[in-house]
Amino acid sequence: MEISLKAEAAHVADPWPGYFADRGHPGARRIGAGVEGVVYRLGDGQVAKVWTGRPPTELTRQVYADIAQHRLPFATPEIFQVHEHEGVVVTYERELPGVPMRGDSAHEDYERTLPVHHRNALLAVLRGLASVPGTDAMRRLTVQGDDRPLWEGHDRFQDALAALVVRAADRHGAALAVHVPDFSAGVERTLNALRSLPDAPVTAIHGDLVPPNIHTDAAGRPVAVLDFGFYTTAGDPAFEAAVTAAVWDMYGPYAEEHTAELTRFFAQELGYAPAALTTYQAVYALTTYDLFGMDDSDGHFRWCAGQLRRNTVFSTQIS
After folding, report:
1. Quick one: which of 289, 310, 317, 284 has its CA closest to 181?
2. What confidence tier does 12 reach under pLDDT thresholds 50, 70, 90?
3. Which one, 40, 45, 100, 202, has the greatest CB density within 10 A?
4. 43-64 as b/e, with b when 16 or more CB fall inside 10 Å?
5. Cα(62)–Cα(143) distance, rounded to whole angstroms?
């Protein structure tokens, strides 16, 4: 999180270090601020977040705990305590190590050659998360932009996703159809491909493994994964791989090449069917296109439309 000059000025009269000092954390230091709130390092591997956005629910806390109980090769968020002070929620959480793998592709251009250490770090994260069994708490999460838990009324991940695709297309599909030829038929092709996918293990899915959400050490190894919640659920680990391949570089000059290369790499290294990865990439675009804007002026909307126009499951019937 970056601290602006305006935020630094406000920091002079910041009451929260005193609040934390009164509660046994005299060395509390503000280390960042973002849309969710302000973060303070408390020491002893712990941080506190003062929430200005929507705070985490007890369900979120349970999902964090479900993941944290497994011995992964990288740290994940864990909420130790939740307090409230004068109507403001304060969470005490595990401090996550490392630094972001790299900045978002919307703000820095990625080189054409995909760095080997980045590719290997992504693979390690995918393998780690795929080792965590899906839990009831994960199934009860709601994907951002939707109005109900993803798994509600369903026993198969693919069927739950198909219902989500239908709801998302009904929301503002007409806006997307302006930019995506043969939209209705493409949705049907995607639904048919999705429902025909075989059953798969149900594991933890982060759903938003963009580079800033993966922290690495000086050697490039992943040491932390953060910011669960955007599309976090339980499901087929191939979905995680498909989405990760698509979102690692969304806006750079070689984004299409990187997506294709990572999709092939994950299919080969993890044994996922390429058609399944392509299907899941179409599903991701169809279910997130309207979360930040509903026309071509919004970068994510424009990216989703481009994904669908190029997606061979959405745009052509699979033989």
Report:
1. 310
2. low
3. 40
4. eeebbbbbbeeebbeeebbbbb
5. 16
